[in-house]
Amino acid sequence: MNREPVVAYLGLGSNIGERERLLAEAVERLSDHPFVEVSAVSPLYETEPVGVTDQPAFLNIACRILTTLDPESLLAAALDIERELGRVRTIRWGPRTIDIDLLLYDNRDIRTPALTVPHPRLMERAFVLVPLLDVIEERERDWLPDGGAIDLEATGVRRWNNTNWPEEFGRSES
User: Fold this and answer.
1) 173 close to 28: Cβ distance less than 8 angstroms
2) Which is more confident, 93 or 28?
3) Which of 1, 23, 77, 101, CA to CA, is 20 to 30 A from 115?
4) Percent of the chain at pLDDT above 70?
């Protein structure tokens, strides 16, 4: 475990069941972890599935967190939350109650058998990049092409009308 908190970014998605509730519950469980502080949560976005396309649309968010967990322990905590919320891994890129990916960790490049950070498909996925840009600090954008300027309409990522989204997480403008 780190002694000083570091900044990390997580991407969350859901396309089975009560998507908004599952995402909110995942954020709450992250917040309840003794070594994690959720400092920002993006608005909700809806996207069509990638890979396996014969499944419901996803809701996606990103979170900025402060943590004293090392990257592997943070991943383990995320996987525990996925299991607690009913995630069953059957089909790669298939439907899921919740998915929590470690996108960035303390501006580090991590390559282990269990973990790759930055997330290996981060730059290919607008459904991850768009919410991430809502929570990432300006000083942490220098690795992004054009500083992270993205044409939302061109991405196929849509802001979700989130009237049930908890106020403390922030709301999208409809």
Assistant:
1) no
2) 28
3) 23
4) 76
Is 101 tagged catalytic? yes
Give the tokens for residue 163: 């009237």
Q: Which of 99, 108, 125, 146 is catalytic?
A: 99
Per-residue pLDDT for 87 more than 70?
no
Question: Of residues 96, 134, 151, 171, which has the active-site annotation?
Answer: 96
**What gap in Å lies between CA 123 and CA 129, rounded to an integer?**
7
The question of whether 83 is a catalytic residue gets the answer no
Backbone φ and ψ of 22, nearest 5°: -65, -40
Catalytic residue (choose from 29, 101, 142, 159): 101
Q: Is the pLDDT reported for residue 124 higher than 50?
A: yes
> Is 87 assigned a catalytic role?
yes
- 70 noted as active-site residue: no
